[in-house]
Design goal:
six-stranded antiparallel sheet, 29 strands
Length: about 775
Amino acid sequence: MKSVKPYFYFLLVFVLIIIGTFPESNWTYSVGLDYSIRWVFNFLFQSNSELGANIVFPHGPLGFLVYPLPGNIQFVYLIQSLNKGLFILAIYFIQESSISESKKWSITLLMSFLFLSILGFSHTMLLVILLSFYTGIHLNKKRFAYIGTLLTVLSIYVSAYQGVIAFTFFLSALLYEIFILKFKKQAIIKLVVFGFGLLLINILLFGELSYIPSYFIGLFNLIQDNSSAVAYYPQNNWLFLVLFFISLILLVLNNLKSKQSVLFLILSVLSIFAAWKHGMAREDTTHARGFMEFCLAVTVLFVFIQKNKIVNYILVFCSFLLLSANLVNVTNYWPTSYQFMRADNFINYIQSANAIEQQAVEQSAKNIKVNKLPDSLLQIIGNEFVDIYPWDYTIIKANNLNWKPRIVIQSYASYTSWLDLQNANHFESDSAPEYLVWMIEKVNLGINLGEYNSIDYRYILNDEPKTIIKLLEKYELVHVADQFYLYKKRKQAVNVESIVSDVSEGKLGEWIPIKYNNQGLYRVKLNFKRTFTQAVKSFLYKDEQYWVSLKLANNMIHNYRIVPKNAKDGIWINPYLFKRGELFQVKEIKITASNPEILNPNFTYSSEELTFSESNNIQSFFKAKLKSPKLQLIHSKLAFSQDKRVDSAYWIYNSVNNLNQEHIEVIQPGNYSSTFKYLEQDTIDGVFLIHANATIDWNCSFKNNEIVLVIEIKDNEKLLKYDVLFVDQQIVNSNGSNQVLLNTSINYSGSDLQVKSYIRNTSSHELKLSNYQVQIIEN
């Protein structure tokens, strides 16, 4: 009877945990960058895994395990339940053998319930892997170590993040066995199991093994230090973060006497660093909170295996408190709550699974209905293969198209030259789709009010420098319907000739003149050399952000973030595509970067002129024409000598501030800058663009949302528009000069247009600004 008890206890705890931590039935997807990925990997697994065999992306072919959709629900819930069952067993086995069975299982129930109520699928599996290797080595339970090895392989195919952290556990376990325990045989067996697992998953998913090398090379490119491409740069409270690390160090120093502590530390230290890099590189709410949850879970487990726990738990609590206090500073912060009793989710699923699934299918169909293509496009495409550019694959589902995906399925993820090259080669190969649907993303206007923006203030034509040239060579525009541009593969590719100039040297913050003869495409290849300090900071934390400023022929300035690893292949300059149907000319560019004190102020560049055998290739590809200069109503700059009304525009000086002869104004705390005012009393009719920009001296004393740039538009005192820029959103150099800009537009017909612009300082510090200017141009 005694032998039955453990199984009974396990079954009881398992059932209670499954019911009490049952996930919410969120089985829908929608349009856009992130939500469409849910559909992609569920579709590929459910319908055609081989179709996605070549795909390289931060989510792997098993990514659907994190966000299941109808059709895969039962399978995913089975995997999640097995995951939870293994976690329960791991918690049970790491407890001291002297504890009674009933107490052990009571503690197991409590610990499992707390952990599994907070953690998602990925972090739960990662903890299972950690505890499997710990149990396998410390308690010599080899089966657990093999389970950890197989779950490591599984994690590699779920996501790059989960795969990297799982592999740190696996690698640390191997090194511990080889160099400390001298168990080389056990390490070799684990390597064999690891290799067997890779082969097995590839055969099960894709039916062959040839995709393994390209998948791992792609994964290597994705996990390189690409923080300059994806990072946010909020103002952290470094006092809290330093104290957080001190508390972790004290926790380690307080527990170095036992072998199990040393083993646990060796297994987990690399994973903490990897999670730190992942969470703090992006540093939005999701990523930063993910790091906090993972770090807290690992440290609690570390304390759980110790005997002297009171001091340890105090240190863990302090570290959690400090990390939580800094969390409010991250980009796009939103508070979250944890539901610790989810039995109602289980009851609803048991009672109404089919109905909930049907509702999810119907809701998803409604969500993506907006991506229904016009009949004119669908008739042209027919049953031919098609791909979507740049990222919203719900177009495939909404129109039942035959999808042939490229290698890197969303353009923004081509962080490196190698990743970009895979897509370029794909579009040049026989595997290229017959048609390409390019969706001009209306909702992603960036800071320049353009329609060719990528994520994080990047320019879509700079995401994949090599791929975009192949598209210009191999495809031609055949139809346009609203925001959908349809391209067809050419029977005969356009020839492209490239002439690259000699290498020149540029300097951060200085304008570079652009010579363009209105022929072909003009790009600039940029090469940045890291300093040692920059490389160390990038390795330990994250790299700096780089921006390019484009000064147009009408003196307006547009800013875009650039990816250094791709910029060496060429950033798009002329003709500058800003809005549909319109091409502009850039006359100067300027490169800026954050934290210039640790950077090499010099960089090298060369210009590249590409000519196409088909004249006006770019114009026809984008169905755009060079836009002639329009009526400029006013271009006014705040100047020391300008104290009277000039035509319809004038500045009202704020006497509280100091405006010197260098046109530098110091805005006092809680005050306003001088105010630009414009009054147009003649009758005008059209769309007008208002552009305000200024140079601001920034330092770490300023907090988020304390400095605002405002454009206010009225018609005979009736407010038409009130646009606000929180200046911290555009700060690149946190301790120096920054150019900030705000663009807005108004469709106006009348004779009493009033425009006002000013900068407000709500902080407790003086703000120095210069070169404050406003332009109003007919669009």
